[in-house]
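INFO  loader      accepted 1 record
INFO  loader      residues=189
INFO  predictor   begin
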Amino acid sequence: MPTRTFTLTLHMVSSLDGMIAKKDNSVAWFDTPDYYEKGVTAPGGEEFLNSVDCYVMGARTYEHALTLSKNYGWPYGDVPTVVVSHRQLPIERPNVECYSGDLRQLVEERLKPRYQNVWIVGGALLAREFLRMNLADEIRLSVLPIILGDGLLFLESLSKELPLHLKNVTAYKTGMVELHYEIKKSERS
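INFO  predictor   done
INFO  writer      dumping tokens
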């Protein structure tokens, strides 16, 4: 009988200088006008959504997604979504739930038994905590062709070295480059 695999992927979109949002939390810079002729076409939204079993995000990312969804729709479809927060948040979709406990317990008791492909999609504080606690298996960093110069850094103050193994690099026609790293388990402390 095949062994069921569980992968916790930390996904982030950043500028070339490592910013994931401007100081005002805007992400309008995600729509860059660049074109890279040798790049591949990004997979369709539905194809991508079907590859992820569950999303995990922090409260600020959730609130930002709610605001954007008023104009663009909910970007995570009907995929189960766990919002990590100690605050009381408005839950507007049946597939969204809040969690306010220990992250290790979340992974071991709620995520692993139910899902195989879980993506942490923001924010920076939550991503750093998953890395600090050695809970993430891989990082997918999508780098956009822009330097912001100032804003919210993705990996500010991680305070430890984390060896990675490059699994893949994909350049897209939009000029975005996706870096796919495996976090070396033998090096974890």
